[in-house]
Amino acid sequence: MEFNIDDIIYWQEGFLKVNATLLNTWLVMLLLIVFSWVVTRKLTSGLNIRRGQALLESFVVLVLDQIREETHEEADKYLPFIGTLFLFIVVSNIIGVIPAIESPTASLSTAVALAICVFIAVPVFGISNRGFSGYLKHYIQPTPFMLPFNIIGELSRTLALAIRLFGNIMSGSLIIAILLSLSPLFFPVVMQAFGLLIGVIQAYVFAILALVYIASATRVQNLKQLEKQEG
Length: 231
Known about the structure:
Layout: E1 9-13, E2 16-19, H1 20-40, H2 51-71, H3 79-94, H4 108-130, H5 132-137, H6 147-182, H7 188-230
Antiparallel strand pairs: 1-2
């Protein structure tokens, strides 16, 4: 097993190359696109809906409830980003249990790219809720001297988000590969189930942390709205 799946090269021409990270990321996107197309092409209402539609609707309701619990506001505007983030990560994680396929999230470049998406989304949602000046003011709270520390905090939590996802998925895949090599007749089923559990948990943790960061960027506006409603 390669320690860094970026080093698994399937095709290269000059500086252009297709490695395991890129190929498996395309595979995950293709799976999500095909699943979405199949499930949504014949939507119905009522009790007699198809299993795929029921599964997708249950997932949407679950994500909406989680967003409302964390942000205490309308969840629809956060659903596309948080839902897509969770779906991509969970499929990327669990696809690694298939023999000869590595999880794209076991690559540091993928984990960093996902963390950068969260890093960009936080100010976007914050500015849309609080306005440009209102959002920037939290960087100088409680005093202007906190500006560099708040900026460092934003960068460090983004780095921690990437390292947490990469470290957990990469180490989990490594442990499973080692155990399978030691006892290939006993561990396969148990380790595959363990890999699925790790993949789902890490996707959930990543999405929840992203939601918490976004909620912290919009919280002041929510408090003002509550004060107006109570007043």
